[in-house]
């Protein structure tokens, strides 16, 4: 159960970031996020994002590596790398590779005319011209009703709602934050954003009652 929920959650998180007018970049600028990932308060790995600019497109590169052991025996291994290019707040192309306990997954796609052509291990499909994936760090993500799962290639209906105002400890400082809930098929999680809409954290409870959490470094 733990492995299944981890797979679902990571598929969503990792692996997109959309370039947006809310986060303008010069040609030379970069922006980075790095999260410590914990399972029941035990650190199991990291998830990092790097945003840069190439001509008129924004490039997002992400990497996640998790390791879970039970009684010192390796039980779960997850490696994911993803590269996406964005323009006008729409995904232009994607190339993602994932390994879960030795099993490999691949997703790729590109914008073509009025469609976004997607290829995955489940086959190919054509989506609407403007597609957004689970771009948690982009405030526009909070307004979407459908999102692309960049690990599996599934295009999911999502419901994202504000929950309330809270205070988090970020990098040793008390930080005001707005909490949001996200529901999509079997995926359920909470997300936190600062008053200026910077992504601060993520938390999800697995079916076995264990808690998976992202902490911003």
Describe the structure.
It is a single chain. With 217 residues, the chain is mainly beta. It has one domain (2-216): Clam (outer membrane lipoprotein receptor (LolB), chain A). The protein has 1 helix and 15 strands; from the N terminus they run H-E-E-E-E-E-E-E-E-E-E-E-E-E-E-E. The longest helix is centred in the first third of the chain and has 12 residues, at 2-13. The radius of gyration is 17 Å and the shape is globular. Residues 1-8 and 10-24 have low confidence and may be disordered.
Topology at a glance:
Layout: H1 2-13, E1 30-39, E2 42-54, E3 57-70, E4 73-87, E5 90-100, E6 103-112, E7 115-120, E8 123-128, E9 146-148, E10 155-157, E11 159-170, E12 173-184, E13 187-193, E14 199-205, E15 211-216
Antiparallel strand pairs: 1-2, 1-15, 2-3, 3-4, 4-5, 5-6, 6-7, 7-8, 9-10, 11-12, 12-13, 13-14, 14-15
- CATH architecture level-2 label: Clam
Q: In total, how many beta strands?
A: 15
- The number of helical runs is 1
* Global mean pLDDT: 86
Q: From N to C, what is the helix and strand string?
A: HEEEEEEEEEEEEEEE
Quote the distance from N terminus to C terminus: 28 Å
CATH level 1 name: Mainly Beta
Unreliable spans are: 1-8, 10-24
**Neighbour order of strands in the largest sheet:** 8-7-6-5-4-3-2-1-15-14-13-12-11
Q: In total, how many domains does the architecture comprise?
A: 1
| Helix fraction bin | under 10%
- β-sheet strand percentage: over 45%
Find the structural class using helix and strand composition: mainly beta
The whole-angstrom Rg is 17 Å
